[in-house]
Amino acid sequence: MKENGVAVDLLSRLRSVPAFSKSTPAELSKLAPLFTQVRLKAGLALYAQGEKAERVFVLLEGRIRMEREAEDGRQVHLGELRAGDFFGFGEMFFEEYYIGTVAEEDSVLLAMKRDDFHLAALAVTGVRNYVMESLAHLARRSVWMLDWVELDRQLRYLLFWLCKDKSAGRDGLIEIPREYTHDRIARMLNASREHVSRCLKNLRVEGVLSPGTRRIVVRKVWTDERKLDPAYDPSLWRYFNID
Question: Domains of the chain, with CATH numbers?
């Protein structure tokens, strides 16, 4: 079935997306033909950090991981996108995507070209307001995000230091002493307990820490792969309020 020449299912799905929920049926009928469907297999990148920004996306099904490369080359997990999310529009005001995106599971998306976004989507009041409000929110979060990446780096150094000269069990795991609670680690790194807990959760997802336990248990293989040792760089000890 079609409405103004556009599949009703597509219009219905667009109406369920917050970015387009305040658009009129006539406005959606004009925007819908500008989208093309994209299917992405789990594990594949939608776009890479630094890649030319050419399209915006609506996630219809699946999950997309957002990540950014840290100074030492690691990919830092920034969060996940889920069905109904409209993303990539911030980069439409720049030349390149400033984060990377990877499918966590098989995903279905709608893509709109850069020019169509500027000439058609932003001409719709509801979409324009959503974009402006979202960009304002992102601006507020930008300072927090820089702090997040730095905290992730400091926490990795601390875990590496706590595992120094410790032998792993038969399961290849090293348990951090119980006295190093989330609260204590937060005090050591001058951070909030909430941020430390979220960083530790991301490290479990990444495989640095063993999942399935509330204790902080490090995989020995990770410490073997690391070439970072705070003992050899005195400037790093300023991160740890050890006394």
Answer: 2-123 (2.60.120.10), 142-239 (2.60.120.10)
